[in-house]
Amino acid sequence: MNLTFQPKYRGGDIDTAPDAFGELRGSGDALSDVKELRWRFEQDGYLLLPGLLDRDQVLEARLEMLRKLDAAGCLDPAYPLEDGVAQADFENSFMTELAQDNAPLMKVLYDGPMMAFYRRFLGGEVRHFDYTWCRSKPPGDDTATPPHYDIVFMGRGTQRLYTSWTPLGDIPVEMGGLMVLENSHRLDEVKADYGTLDVDAYCTNYPDAAEIESGEKLWQHPNGGAYSLDPIAARAELGLRWLTTDYAMGDLLIFSMYTMHASMDNLTSRIRLSTDTRYQLASEPVDERWIGENPIAHGLASKRGMIC
């Protein structure tokens, strides 16, 4: 990873000094060694698996997503479809509809090398959440994802749940791909405090309880479930490094529920396409918000009131 530009988060400069910013460790050398992969995952809280997925299958899924974006008027017609260049006014960074009726994407995420990997890695039959998170990050400085643990959004089942972040295209650092906070899965104080949050739980005796119950307000948490709204300040506070890399189509990044992560500004003209999906042993409890034909997600049926 050779930076020739300044990475940013919502317009602010990300510190790229060696003690603040670095490169993810790749584990392509250990793909056939499950014991080594499990050890690295325990050590790092993530695994970067270059070329694990079939690049041609990922390309097919990408093109189907781009066709949907083109039909919705989101792409600049002056450029080839496969480039994914955004229309000047494109702003939609989260589009679950890109997964709907997208058979190539379903094959990439829920069949083939992805599921085979998880069966080997977890050592048993695997189930995945039925909900597919699709990201379509536009150029600009207002849609980067703030630092967070996934557990606060999906912690009602097993904690032995794993996130796959799948780049749907080549994503060099200037496109603002995912970054992981090094050793953040070892922050016991943060895990015991922020890591116990359930964003869909709310205090019925708080002034905004009626807004939650009516659906007018999504969450009571002031940061919307994020640990911080500023990864630059969060990194300085916690004294750890942000790690990222130049992702290639076919790469896979997996991480734990307690691995803090965020994304950066997309400094290109192209839409950054990715998905994040979840996997676990089928024998363990599953979070009811994310399963079924029409998962309740963070809707009204997911809310749990309590006296605080």
What is this entry, summarized?
With about 300 residues, this protein is of the alpha+beta class.
Topology:
Elements: E1 8-9, E2 12-13, E3 21-23, H1 34-44, E4 46-49, H2 55-71, H3 103-110, H4 112-122, E5 126-128, E6 133-137, E7 162-167, E8 178-181, H5 188-192, E9 201-203, H6 209-214, H7 231-238, E10 242-244, E11 252-256, E12 261-263, E13 272-281, E14 304-306
Parallel strand pairs: 3-10, 9-14
Antiparallel strand pairs: 1-2, 4-11, 5-13, 6-13, 7-11, 7-13, 8-10, 8-12
Helix pairs in contact: 2-3, 3-4
What would you note in describing this structure?
The longest helix is centred in the N-terminal third of the chain and has 17 residues, at 55-71. The strands form four sheets. Strands 4, 5, 6, 7, 11 and 13 form a six-stranded antiparallel sheet that branches. Strands 3-10-8-12 form a four-stranded mixed sheet, with no helix packed on it. It has a single domain, classed as q2cbj1_9rhob like domain (Jelly Rolls, Sandwich), CATH 2.60.120. It is 21% helix and 18% strand. It is α+β, with helices and mostly antiparallel strands and 308 residues long. A hairpin with a 2-residue loop joins strand 1 and strand 2 (12-13). Helix 2 runs antiparallel to helix 3 and helix 3 packs parallel to helix 4 (112-122).
